[in-house]
């Protein structure tokens, strides 16, 4: 029995020596996976750098520049899209937003705060007791949280961290957080996972924000992925209330969210009589928050 044990130890010892000798002769063996991973990271960073300079890339162009197959490039683009760093198009990809036009919500919160609070207060009157409500992210919609408790909703669903922070201590209703890809510019969650959260609920009313409000072009925002998230909210809500102060009127941002046919109410602080009439002709109820 002792001889068998001794032979087993000796066998393992020889195997260990063989492995050490092999590794010293072929040092690339143990580092190959790390090298491949680093190459993939560098390749994806190169794709993003190209996008920043020309705003759109094609698969065939990237194949030639990076000397890899279409399958590899498509996999890279899919991974980058899942992380919210680009949006896939037919045959290529684009940036989800124009960084030069994007503004932090910490800055927009300080613009027209009194007007935004009045808009939110008026909009909150559309919420009925016992209803389920979605509150979108935004510098105007965040004020809805200040008036929500007195309307006695059954459940509040939001993708906004600012709204969540305001409502987290309230025990009179359920608070559901739609998680996903964190977008620091809006302090919110966006993307496919966020959309899947909204697909699991049915809301009575949605309070939605926007970067641009145009009579002819409809509702827009600055981020393509955020636009998808807003459309998911709209799809799973009975009534859609758009909150927008006068500075958003007449503006058109990068990503189209929806046409006016998807909006039931527009709550603002100022709007021209001509614009108000056109919207009312399309079935939109226009509410103006006075001083």
Describe this structure in words.
This protein is an alpha/beta fold and 291 residues long. It has 2 domains: 14-94, Winged helix-like DNA-binding domain superfamily/Winged helix DNA-binding domain (Arc Repressor Mutant, subunit A); 105-288, Rossmann fold (3-Layer(aba) Sandwich), CATH 3.40.50.1360. It is 42% helix and 20% strand. The chain has 10 helices and 15 strands. The strands form 4 sheets. The protein has a 7-stranded parallel β-sheet, with helices on both faces. The chain has a 3-stranded antiparallel β-sheet with strand order 1-3-2. Helix 7 (161-167) links the parallel strand 5 and strand 6. The longest helix has 27 residues, at 28-54. The protein is globular and about 60 Å long. 35% of the residues are buried.
The number of helical elements comes to 10
Q: Sheet with the most strands?
A: 7 strands, parallel
Please give the CATH class of the largest domain: Alpha Beta
Alpha-beta classification: alpha/beta
CATH topology of the largest domain: Rossmann fold
Strand content: 15-25%
CATH architecture of the largest domain: 3-Layer(aba) Sandwich
State the helicity in percent bands: 40-55%
